[in-house]
Amino acid sequence: MKRTTIQQIALALVAIAALAQPLQSAPAERPNVLLVKPVILCDDNGENPARSALPKTLADQVYTRGDLEFLYLPPVQWHYGQARRGEINLDTIVKSGHANGMIVRDPRVATLLFVSAVDGMTKPLGRGLQGGNICFVNLGAPDKMHNPAERAFVVAHEIGHCLGMIHAVNDLKVPDDVPNLQGDGPFAERLAVEGLHPTQVRTLHKSPLALPRLHFSSKDEAANLICEDQWDLPLDTLTPDNLRFELGLTPATPLPNDAQERLTLIKGKYAELSTTFSKEDKEQLTLWTQRIDQLTNPQWPMISRLPWHFAKMSATFCKGKPHTRGLHIVLTDEALKRFCQNENKALEVLIHEKLHVIQRLMPHHFEAAYQNYGYESVTVPQETAHKLNFVRNPDAPLPNWAIRHDDSLLLLATSLNTKGDDFQFIERAYPIDKTSVGQALPQTTILDDFRAKFPIRVGHDHPNEVAAHTLGRLFRVEMLGEPNDLLTRIQRTTLNEAKQSFAKLLQFPDTE
Ligand SMILES: [Zn+2]
């Protein structure tokens, strides 16, 4: 009897001790993620890549109390010798990186650049932009930084600066006589769970880089997302018809001629159209994303583990069509109503849109797949796209892929045409060479063979859409068990090839 009481007391003490400890969850179960885009600087000819490492285990460990998981996108190489060798300053590198998209402008994604020298110095070091989203790391020669904890420390420490932390020695709230991520001590101890002080946890949770795995934007966030696009859709590059279409205005609606006046007016209109999700919307979307995560996690971890961020707009916005802006999937009441009537379709569309977010995060990684589909990369001057009134699809913003037909290249593009009081989409084929786009071909059947090989009905004008529609189809066949017996033999072959291709594309890179 006495022993039982002692056992009970002991158990109670263990339970109290467990309550006093912060809960330590496995990285994949944490409610926040940190998205890192690794960029490896090389010489201009692609040789001599800087030494790189993607430390995840120890970085996840030190960020345990922050409930944050590191998610690395597949590394991309940047051929820029002067930058790799530290012959130009970091500001110049950042400027070029912003211009060519190598460095992400969106403050929600960190870019981690590996170089071989910084400002002429070849010794190993890291530089993280305080409260920003850019880190430079030089791991030095292979005989340096051979301890994985040392490499993990440099990355986790510099990212810590981006997350808003300062050195412990300058931080009045963080004791600097015990090992800390921003202080001194053996690397292994600085990277221990205790290496992050509770006040540092509060700091990092204020950073835009700490992304909730599931997020529903407020009205202001939704308007901001569209008016201040950080990716590929700046408002001032939209043609008047594209603006009218997005805002739900008729083709005849006048817009101010003055650029500034027009921008103010359209920002006001976008703000009017932005709205919020109801409690029911949120519950429903939470259930659907959980179901998708469960089904896709084994084969397509990028779909399940990259965050789900949603924004809601009124039904007239872009005619209610679901699409993406930055990391967000944009939905309307109309779309949600349709989703409730057909749950499989809802899951398919959500997966389709999630792929568009992934395409935006890592465009270079899709190029080989698009070439396999039969597309070739081309450049269409913006003036030409404007003159032909091409629709600016937010998920495929540039008409930069053509298909080969006999000896020539054909650009498939959709333009906005006026039909009475409304707009209609017309897809046409234009011969294109290195420098110019020719007259649209008359309505013809020459593209039918090209279209017929894909297991999808629409979206052939851009491989971003082909990939997204195909993934949606594949999901329904492979993961929802729907039959594919209505597909032709060649379509089934295409679907099978896509299965192999997505199995590789939608994996996270190897980490240490
Ligand atoms: Zn799409």
What would a concise description of this structure say?
By secondary structure, the protein is of the alpha/beta class. The chain is built from 19 helices and 16 strands.
Account of the protein in words:
It is a single chain. With 512 residues, the protein is an alpha/beta fold. It has helices at residues 2-20, 57-62, 81-84, 90-100, 148-162, 187-190, 198-204, 219-227, 240-247, 259-273, 279-296, 301-305, 333-341, 343-361, 367-373, 382-387, 448-452, 463-478, 489-505, and strands spanning 32-42, 68-72, 76-79, 109-114, 125-128, 134-138, 211-212, 214-216, 274-275, 308-313, 323-325, 328-331, 375-377, 401-405, 408-419, 422-432. The strands form 3 sheets. Strands 1, 2, 3, 4, 5, 6 and 7 form a 7-stranded mixed sheet that branches. Strand 14 (401-405) and strand 15 form a beta hairpin. The protein is globular, with a radius of gyration of 25 Å. It starts with a helix and ends in a 7-residue tail after the last helix. Bound molecules: zinc ion. Zinc ion binds at residues 352, 356, 395, 465, 468.
Distance between the termini: 52 Å
In DSSP terms (H or I, runs of 4 or more residues), the helix count works out at 19
> CATH class of the largest domain, anyone?
Alpha Beta
Percentage of residues in strands: 15-25%
Largest sheet: 7 strands, mixed
Whole-angstrom Rg: 25 Å
SS content category: alpha/beta
Helix content: 25-40%
Bound molecules: zinc ion
CATH architecture of the largest domain: 3-Layer(aba) Sandwich
Shape: globular
Query: Residue-averaged pLDDT, rounded?
Result: 93
Give start-end ranges of low-pLDDT stretches.
13-20
Q: What's the count of strands?
A: 16
Q: Give the total of domains.
A: 3
CATH topology of the largest domain: the name is: Collagenase (Catalytic Domain)
